[in-house]
Design a protein that fits this description.
With about 260 residues, this protein is an alpha/beta fold. It contains ten helices and twelve strands. It has an eight-stranded parallel barrel with strand order 1-4-5-6-7-10-11-12, surrounded by six helices.
Length: about 260
């Protein structure tokens, strides 16, 4: 059985790591380079870096900051925010990103997924989907959750897979920052309608929530921010808890003296 991944997320605004609730009320969470280095040392399996205001401000992702983070970590590193072309991807890969996350630009121009997959490979392309449960239906939102669409979460996920994306990062806007648990019902439905890995995002508050999203939500990976940023949950402690509950995780390597 494949190991389940634990992924800290660095939401970046004005060069700083920030965290909010339901995509609003952002507060400072620290220096992204220092946090990235800490997470690599603490046993994170991957790292996600999202320049959350790049699309809204109509600018490109902070390549220099991406390079600074990449120089300090030895784990897979996914970067997103303001990416709308193959040239954007090339710049970020050259600055140390391992994978690229696209969101709003892919919804506006779905053929972008095909283009990026053809040039860089499925394993490099993650499609992030921010969705909100409205009147019983999950609707995709763009521009950091600020722009609602009529696009159905599950229909879009199927199209994303068909176009060759290697992974989906699903964030429930209803659960984001609430620390009440992940959107496991929606995650389980996602896992039924696509065959590519699903990263669960939005709602982590305690170790039980990670266990629940792997068991009930059928997620392949779980992403969280504030519980890691503010040291409410230690990554190795979380992995030990998951392992004791029969969830396969990458464990700490014991170095022989």
């Amino acid at each position: 059985m494949l190991t389940k991944r634990i992924i800290p997320c660095l939401d970046i605004k004005n060069g700083r790591t920030v965290k909010g609730v339901n995509f609003v009320d952002l507060r400072d969470a620290g220096d992204p380079v220092e946090l990235a280095e800490r997470y690599a040392e603490e046993g994170a399996d991957e790292l996600v870096f999202l320049d959350i205001s790049a699309t809204e401000e109509e600018r490109k992702t902070l390549a220099r900051l991406v390079k600074s983070v990449a120089e300090r970590v030895n784990i897979p590193f996914t970067v997103g925010g303001g990416i709308s072309s193959a040239s954007d991807v090339s710049i970020l890969l050259k600055n140390g990103a391992d994978k690229i996350s696209v969101n709003s630009s892919a919804v506006k121009n779905p053929s972008l997924i095909d283009e990026l997959v053809a040039k860089f490979g499925s394993q490099c392309i993650v499609v992030a989907i921010d969705a909100k449960l409205l009147k019983g239906e999950w609707k995709v939102h763009l521009v950091g959750g600020k722009v609602p669409t009529d696009l159905d979460l599950f229909d879009w996920a199927r199209e994303v897979e068909k176009r060759g994306a290697g992974e989906i990062l699903f964030t429930s806007m209803n659960h984001d920052g609430t620390k009440n648990g992940f959107a496991n019902k929606a995650l389980a439905e996602l896992s039924q309608c696509v065959n590519i890995p699903i990263i669960a995002s939005g709602g982590a508050g305690k170790p039980q929530h990670f266990l629940d999203t792997f068991v009930e939500g059928k997620a392949d990976a779980a992403l969280a921010a504030s519980v890691f940023h503010f040291k409410e949950i230690g990554i190795w402690d979380l992995k030990e808890y998951l392992s004791k509950n029969n969830i396969p995780v990458r464990k700490r390597v014991q170095v022989q003296p």
